Every structure is written in C-alpha cells, then in structure tokens.
C-alpha cells in the first residue's frame, strides 16, 4: 500500500530546507554546545499572567468542545483589533479562530483554490509555503524577488505569472528577509490582484514587529477587502508559539465555508487557550511592544556590529525577528557558509537557500538569544566571513 500522492508529494521531491538546523540539533543532542540563531522562537516564554488565565479557564471548566468558529468574545476582540489598526470595517463574522497561523495558511488555500489550481507565492519564502499549497491540492508557482530590490516584489514579475492563477501569498513584515513591503509595493500587488482576479492571502503574523516604515495590511487598499484573506497569530506578537492559536480574517461567505472546513478537520481550538488569547489581546499594544522590544534592540546591536566591516552586508532590517545577511563576498553559498560556521564556531544560522533561490548566498539570523550572546555570535560570524573572504 502507498500513501496518497498529495501527502507524499508535500515536499515536491526536494529538501525541506532544515538540514543545518537538524545538524545543529544532532550536535546538541550529543553534548556539543551550539548557539542557535535558526528558528523564530522567543528567548522568553509566554508571560505568567497569560498562563495563569489559561490555568484559571481550564480549572473553571472550559475544557470541553469549544465553539468551532472560535469563542464569540475572542472573535469580537480580533475583529476590533483589525478594524482599529486597518480602518476596514470588520466584525466577528469576518473572523475564524484557527490552531495557529500555519493552520490558517492551509485553510486559506483550501478556501481559494481547487485541486490543480495555480497558487502563487514569493521567493524568498517561509519554508512551509510550497508544501502548504501542495497539501491543499493546488500547484505552487514561485515568483522571485531580487536582492538588488531589497527583496521588494515587482508587480510586473507577479503580473507575468498571474494569468490563470487563483491566489497569491505574501508576507509582510517578511520572514526570512526582515523587509517590510512599501505602500508602492503593496499598491502594485493590489493592482495585479484586481486586474487578474486573484485572491490575496496576506500572512501578517509579524505585524507588531516593525522597526522602519509602517505595516500596511493590503486588505485596507481599494477594492481588496473582498478578495483578501489575512492570516494572523498570537505566536510572535505575544510569545505564544506553543499555544497554537491564530485566525483568518476575510469576507463573510469565505469564513462561513472555513467554519465548515474546521468542523470536518480541526473541530476548533481548546476553549481555555482561547480564553488566554482573549486575555492577552486585551493587554493592548503596550504589552505587544514589550514582546517586540528585544528584537528592535538586537537589530540596533546588529547595525553597530556590521558597521565598519565589508565581509557581510545587511538586507534592510525593517521588521520581524530576523536579519538577512549577504555573505556572497566569501565566495560561498549560504548553505556552505552556514555548515562551515556551525563546524568552526558552533553557531547555527539558516542558509538563504532554505527559503528558495532568490536569497542564495545569504544566511538568515534569528535575533532570538540574549543581547550580549547575540552580539558575540554576530561578531564571530563577521570575523569568520572575513577569514573566508581572505581565503577566497
């Protein structure tokens, strides 16, 4: 007996991009200390008051089946948050609560694409994007962005691939590049979506981590609310990665259909986790700023470390918890550099090639360790790149 082609083909026959990460974890398991700058996991845990609310809700009995679209109060809170921050009229009927942002991405593609439909996404991309599209039964088609444009997508490139496609997936602030899409970029994307009748799936899980410019939700642009699905999550904004709670915001008819999907797949999110998420959202923007503050601080540290050396250059770090570093001056691929850095100094970073081909010759650095350790690791990375450059 064989597994279905849909499930066995999720990776598309290639690597999942996690080879360096897996090697680092093997080293740790055998007792070798490794400085991990790989995944977007906060170096703080979920705040105690949020966990206490989760505990209170569980003890109070909210452990049975919860409302499948999401607890009404949480749906209202998400809707209010979105409306206040974007200016787009939003009610609870535009919101479905999901088991994390990843589940929301899958649901959004199920909602917009039939089997075999072409679903567009941008390179560099978060590692799960193409597999999510394949898992939903659609055919992924990647559109490259360019380092010389600071990885801002070109509307002309999207338009060149848009004929016959059903959806386009974007992510701003962006993982892996740290770039925040400009208004001009988003206006161009919106124009292509309107002209080519594309659904836009907007992954906005880093919307609270903006260091330069502003986060603009494309749902707020002219004519886009009816064709945009926004993916949100508590993972990055509230350091609740393990709680697995997110949402989809979109037109009411799509949300109604997504509720049917949830009824036949996830059957909702545990009620006590939803209660904790509601409590967390009600802590407001000041709390979200506290969660984001270490990454803003470390981004400033990175600017100081990278100044005055020429082996490594920084893609504009405008948002999210990552730096994208150009190491092409070493003559190495991003993957070769990452493996060599791990071997020589036990520092683990993600190769740009883990996120597609557009960031080849780059590495992604997660700003997810304590400040002084982060500064020391980044200095070592730069010195190592300089030595490789001298040897090239």
From TrEMBL:
It comes from the Bacteria. Keywords: Aminotransferase, Pyridoxal phosphate, Transferase. GO terms for biological process: amino acid metabolic process. Belongs to the class-I pyridoxal-phosphate-dependent aminotransferase family. It catalyses: L-aspartate + 2-oxoglutarate = oxaloacetate + L-glutamate. GO terms for molecular function: L-aspartate:2-oxoglutarate aminotransferase activity; pyridoxal phosphate binding. This is Aminotransferase. Gene3D superfamilies: Type I PLP-dependent aspartate aminotransferase-like (Major domain). Residues 34-380 form the Aminotransferase class I/classII large domain. It is an enzyme of class 2 (transferase). The keyword Cytoplasm does not apply.
């Amino acid at each position: 007996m064989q597994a279905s082609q849909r499930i066995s083909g999720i990776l598309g026959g290639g690597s999942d991009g996690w080879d360096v990460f897996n090697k680092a974890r093997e080293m740790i398991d055998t007792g070798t200390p490794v400085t991990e700058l790989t995944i977007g996991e906060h170096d703080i845990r979920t705040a105690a008051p949020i966990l206490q609310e989760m505990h209170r809700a569980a003890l109070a009995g909210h452990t049975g089946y919860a409302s499948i679209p999401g607890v009404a109060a949480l749906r209202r809170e998400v809707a209010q948050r979105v409306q206040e921050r974007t200016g787009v009229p939003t009610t609870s009927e535009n919101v479905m609560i999901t088991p994390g942002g990843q589940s929301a991405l899958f649901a959004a593609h199920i909602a917009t694409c039939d089997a075999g439909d072409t679903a567009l996404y941008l390179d560099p991309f978060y590692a799960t994007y193409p597999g999510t599209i394949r898992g939903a039964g659609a055919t992924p088609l990647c559109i490259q962005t360019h380092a010389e444009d600071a990885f801002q997508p070109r509307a002309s490139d999207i338009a060149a691939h848009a004929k016959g496609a059903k959806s386009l997936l974007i992510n701003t602030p962006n993982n892996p590049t740290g770039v925040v899409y400009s208004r001009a970029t988003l206006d161009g994307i919106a124009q292509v979506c309107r002209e080519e009748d594309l659904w836009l799936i907007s992954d906005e899980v880093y919307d609270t981590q903006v260091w330069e410019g502003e986060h603009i939700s494309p749902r707020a642009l002219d004519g886009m609310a009816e064709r945009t699905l926004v993916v949100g999550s508590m993972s990055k904004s509230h350091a609740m990665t393990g709680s697995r709670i997110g949402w989809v915001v979109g037109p009411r008819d799509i949300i109604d259909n997504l509720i049917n999907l949830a009824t036949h797949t996830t059957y909702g999110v545990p009620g006590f986790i939803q209660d904790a998420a509601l409590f967390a959202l009600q802590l407001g923007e000041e709390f979200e700023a506290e969660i984001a503050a270490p990454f803003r601080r470390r981004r400033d540290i990175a600017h100081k470390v990278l100044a005055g050396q020429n082996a490594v250059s920084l893609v504009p770090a405008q948002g999210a918890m990552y730096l994208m570093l150009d190491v092409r001056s070493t003559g190495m691929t991003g993957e070769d550099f990452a493996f060599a850095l791990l071997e020589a100094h036990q520092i683990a970073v993600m190769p740009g090639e883990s996120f597609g081909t557009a960031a080849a010759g780059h590495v992604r650095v997660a700003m997810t360790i304590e400040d002084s350790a982060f500064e020391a690791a980044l200095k070592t990375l730069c010195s190592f790149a300089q030595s490789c450059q001298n040897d090239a």
